[in-house]
Amino acid sequence: MEDKDHYRFENEMDTSVLWLKETPPPAPGPGPSRLRFWMVPALMAGVLLVLIVVLGVYNSKTSGRLASTEGRVSNLTASVQSLNASLQHANEAIKELHRLQFSVQNHGEQLTAVSAALKHLSAVDSLSRSVAELRCSLNRLSNNGSAEDGCCSLGWIQFGSSCYFFSRVSLNWDESKVWCEKQNAHLVIIITDEEWDFVTKTSIPDWYWVGLSDGRTGKWEWVNHTPYTVEHRRWRPGQPDNWVVLVLGSEDCAHLYADGLLNDLHCLQKMRFICQKHV
Questions:
Q1: What is the pLDDT, as a whole number, of residue 161?
Q2: Which parts pass through the membrane (predicted)?
Q3: Per-residue pLDDT at 110
Q4: Are β-strands 272-278 and 208-213 bridged in parallel, bridged antiparallel, or unpaired?
């Protein structure tokens, strides 16, 4: 019984094997193979698209950098042009400076020559005055102290065609006027620039009455009644102001201040004075 069953089982197995061997293979289906066929081109297209996008972004950045670089180059070019213009102006300024230095040097040499000539003339003038004073001194000695024509008395200073006396005593304006008249002179009358220079340089830093007043007519005039037109460059700032004091009255007389400029003052004030007379 068991042998029959075993035989039947083996026959069934052999039949199954034969059936399996004789059964043809199934035909390939359309799904998986076609999908693989289209996936490769799609993947390549995607990669290509990504590359295109990346290249586009890179080109965009490169274009931006190029534009920025061009802008910097343009700015640098403008800066170089500006520097060149500034350098040209600087060179022109240097040339002008050299020209001015040369001109100043020439003028300096000319001024030096003029200064030397003026010093020489001053020395000659001083020597001439010294010779004249010496001659007058000899004449006075030979004439028992009296002065001859062309000479100033002892204690007087000759300048131009006049003799000047700068007092050491102090008197009021009227007393000074009288004192000068007793010496056959008058309070100083100053007309020319040369006379102004001589008188003021000699008077500084003291105060001296001069022959100028507005007490007689209310208008300024010299002691010889010659009208005087006020030159403010000869006066101290704000003068003459005709200041009035109840006891002394108004300021009607002029004097030289310590700086050599004119100032009006009350005539009763006492100070030194300057007399003048013709040689």
A1: 92
A2: 37-58
A3: 75
A4: parallel
